[in-house]
């Protein structure tokens, strides 16, 4: 309940901020009666009203039966996973697809309970296989990054 | 009866060897994707959009591929709910109720093939309905002006909330988030940059694939972290694989009834497969009365929701193809795919590109038949896939998701955006917000704003154009009903609870 209230209030503040951002949007010259800011402002206003109601009267969250409560270790894991995904996004172009997915995939496999050796083997093989499958077979261009040297 | 001629033409498109192979590989990929935890029809279809584009498939083949993947995903979800009792998504919850007990009684193969058969009949009924009604609706929809379109979309959004059951407000907020997100980027009418924060990558708006994969794949990856333990062993699918004539005829009338009901619910925006499967299951349980063994492996309990899901999935294509208004998350993704090919679904699509429309409808038949046939030799391989542990699966899903996002624009900005959206989606999920309304809102947002502005340009700013024609008036009445409906239901539930409390 409390989390839901906090969430509603935070999102409400974001709405207000965005509305302030949208306020000066005006077409320099216009042929139509409705400008570029009307629609987003309308949506933000409706969202704001709903969130205000939600902040005052939050609805109980129905948990499915086998869902465990969030505890500290899980939260840490989720944090690590998020960081890994961000690292993946950051290294994707500089290191290239194969290296960055090996580098991020192995700790991720460990995070989900894999043992060292199988994780290393499977992730390495899968990274190379996916590169060949997408870049060579399906024509989806992927960056080679550091492995550029091997190309020629 | 030129409709039949068109349908024949559609089969001509769907039965070319090239498209048959496309449909076959689509159903195979879809089944595997639907089997895996963390991937469902929505992100399965979304992942394939950039790939289909990169492969250079012609639009009708791409659409056939996506439709086949969609049906395959539904089938894959069925396998995990029947063999593992773990429904992959909301619509297959009802399937597990009777499918899992059947599998426990050694009828796993029969349950799977019967469910595929039921879904096929459902799709068949819905396709017949589509063949009859879609051209009519398309003809009627040509009379729609911008004002009518705007009101129709308002109706669709409100329907979502009204049909969502116990959480109309959250559904509504989710749809609004999607509607708002669609306005990010350069405004086509005035050239104003909206909410881009001077970031050049946002000038084009948020890419649809990035939004879908962030919301569904990344949030699911984070959600899977909570479930470290592996689910129970899959029931072995041994013995007879096919249902026999007696079993099929015993559920035949169930199939017909549920197919009709599923089709109608699929056409309505917002209702979709989940509601259709729940309603038909309950209805069949009531019809069967004391003679039914619902919940203990009754074939009717398996056939009812499966037929409804099959019919609703095809029915949802009707508003998408005729009006350009998606009724479910998956059809929203398909509209996103069509827009990549510069095809705008709507009444004119039937006249301008009959190959695409009827080819798609025909390929739904073909893909459904393929699924029934695939069941026999492939089911053992599919059950093997269920045994892949999460630690090997999740990183691969994450990597493939990254590829899918990178394939759209080849910028790492999209990857960061995807992670951000994924975290937001995870929080929304933990707070019990439904996610597919965000997608629907995102697709409808651009159309809604354009039509509103066009309508008000016609009337030179007068708002009365929004309720001056009989069509708009009718839809406003429907909208008002949909707004009041959940309130009445909640009010009645509350008063019942209060009475129950007073009794104690």
Automatic annotation (TrEMBL), chain A:
The chain crosses the membrane at residues 6-26, 38-56, 76-104, 116-134. Residues 6-143 form the DUF1468 domain. Keywords: Membrane, Transmembrane, Transmembrane helix. Pfam families: TctB (PF07331). InterPro entries: DUF1468. This is Tripartite tricarboxylate transporter TctB family protein. The lineage of its organism: Bacteria, Pseudomonadati, Pseudomonadota, Gammaproteobacteria, Pseudomonadales.
UniProtKB/TrEMBL annotation, chain B:
Residues 20-440 form the DUF112 domain. InterPro entries: DUF112_TM (IPR002823). Pfam families: TctA (PF01970). It comes from the Bacteria. Keywords: Membrane, Transmembrane, Transmembrane helix. The chain crosses the membrane at residues 20-39, 46-71, 109-134, 140-160, 172-193, 205-225, 260-283, 303-325, 332-350, 356-374, 381-400, 406-428, 435-453, 473-491. The keyword Transmembrane applies. PANTHER family: TRICARBOXYLIC TRANSPORT PROTEIN. This is Putative tricarboxylic transport membrane protein. It comes from Pseudomonas graminis. The lineage of its organism: Bacteria, Pseudomonadati, Pseudomonadota, Gammaproteobacteria, Pseudomonadales.
